[in-house]
Amino acid sequence: MFHKNIKVDELTHKYYIDLPSVSALLKLLPQYKNDYKDCSVEFLKPYQERGNCFHKRVEFYINNNFDLNCNCEYSKELHNNLFNNFLFWYDDYFLNINKPQTEISLINNYFLGTFDFMYLDNDNNYHLLDWKTNKITNQIKTLTQLKLYEILIKDNLNINKNTKFIFECFNPNENRFITFTNKQEKQANKNVKYILNILKGEITNE
Ligand SMILES: [Zn+2]
């Protein structure tokens, strides 16, 4: 594979790809630039642990139909509650879920990212979902994130350019399944356009 951003680390002789991730791209948007800026590493740790635990268990469950259990030191009860909320939700939708794909990492010429979950429904629409394990989520930010994954998916997987994508989010903390409004779609499209302009060097990011 040819990629202009493959770099070599002279010390370790390891190759890596020097491209921004989807999460890094979201920080290019002025309105989200300062999210978590004032939070210490120590403060964020339990939230990250909760998120990692949930993502790992869900990935394993979707791929193997079997639960890994929580091996975290703290907050086991909360972690188990989040996973149980997911199970109830997943069972409800299970018969409409075909070709599930989870935690797939993709790359194009401009950025890279790993989406949480994608499936084909019985009407042949693709659903692209994100899991949010914190109570408060900015829905337009989540939708922007999902639309960036859509670009990676269309650039990589053999999916017809006209295929309809339905964007959704499941929040096991609020036990809430989130869909998006047309107004939110418009705002997210603006965000994506802004990010792509920066990536393609058409404007500078001051
Ligand atoms: Zn856990």
UniProtKB/TrEMBL annotation:
It comes from Mesoplasma melaleucae. InterPro entries: PDDEXK-like_dom_sf. This is PD-(D/E)XK endonuclease-like domain-containing protein.
